[in-house]
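Ops channel
N.P.: pipeline sanity check, posting one input/output pair.
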């Protein structure tokens, strides 16, 4: 993807070293907003962040985030502009009746099958058809 590790920071002549900068920084983020290249960003990778989940944001914002962070972005409702995608398994398999978020693509309709299977199980238990002989364990003689 677009995410790459940054080996070191290049500083213009006369710029403060890292320690000097961090001592004076008030964490207002204005430098990040003003930077035309997007090179100024928190040291998220150095802090141990290995990926960033971007959820339910406009396409344009997902693109900007993905371009500017040094770790892969994983989108959920954030467009293909992210480096990877994730969906909740129950959502994509159609196991949640009722509300489906706009960003979910349902790949199967398993809710009806799950309900039918559960109903069959309940009926078999009530009628004592389950468990049957092929589902049982027995002590071994000897």
């Amino acid at each position: 993807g677009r995410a790459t590790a940054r080996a070191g920071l290049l500083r213009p002549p006369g710029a403060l070293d890292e320690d000097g900068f961090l001592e004076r920084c008030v964490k207002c983020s204005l430098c990040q907003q003003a930077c035309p290249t997007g090179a100024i960003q928190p040291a998220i990778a150095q802090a141990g962040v290995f990926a960033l989940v971007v959820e339910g944001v406009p396409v344009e914002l997902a693109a900007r985030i993905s371009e500017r962070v040094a770790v892969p972005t994983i989108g959920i409702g954030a467009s293909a502009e992210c480096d990877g995608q994730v969906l909740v398994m129950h959502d994509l398999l159609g196991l949640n009746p009722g509300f489906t978020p706009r960003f979910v693509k349902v790949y199967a309709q398993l809710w009806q099958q799950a309900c039918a299977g559960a109903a069959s199980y309940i009926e078999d238990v009530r009628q004592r058809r389950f468990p049957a002989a092929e589902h049982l364990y027995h002590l071994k003689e000897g």
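N.P.: looks fine end to end. The CA atoms of residues 74 and 84 lie 5 Å apart.
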